[in-house]
Amino acid sequence: MKKLTLLFLTVLTICSCSKPIPEDKLSYAGEWQSKEMYLLILPDGTVSYQRLQNGGRTSIDAPLKEFVGEDFIVGAAFLTTTFDVTQAPHQVDGEWVMVVDGVKLIKNQD
Questions:
Q1: Could you say which DSSP state residue 36 is in?
Q2: Cα separation of 77 and 38, whole Å?
Q3: Which domains are delineated in the chain?
Q4: For the whole prediction, is pTM greater than 0.85?
Q5: What do you get for the CA distance between the two ends of the chain, in Å?
Q6: What is the distance, to the nearest Å, from the Cα of residue 68 to the centroid of all Cα atoms in its chain?
Q7: CA distances from 61 to 26, 27, 105 (A)
Q8: Which of 2, 14, 24, 106 is paired with 89 by a 20 to 30 Å CA distance?
């Protein structure tokens, strides 16, 4: 029972640390994809990320901590990941495009 309580408190702490996306960065919100990467950024600061690379899979489900320029930092406490944004969200031929960690992502238009 103690382990379950500790797990619940850890999840509650992590979930409560997300920061809503600032007004000037709302174009980042949405579902972004390429063949090897999936990135979901919700306006409330929730981030879900998956990437297939070199025969392996990396995934992160964590709160948004902050933006540093165009880059954004995801995680909690000392466990964080910085996403390197070399092209901020912008439109090309009617599609939203962003380049994160060297991968061109297209925003799903639902």
A1: S
A2: 24
A3: 2-107 (2.40.128)
A4: no
A5: 42
A6: 14
A7: 19, 20, 18
A8: 14
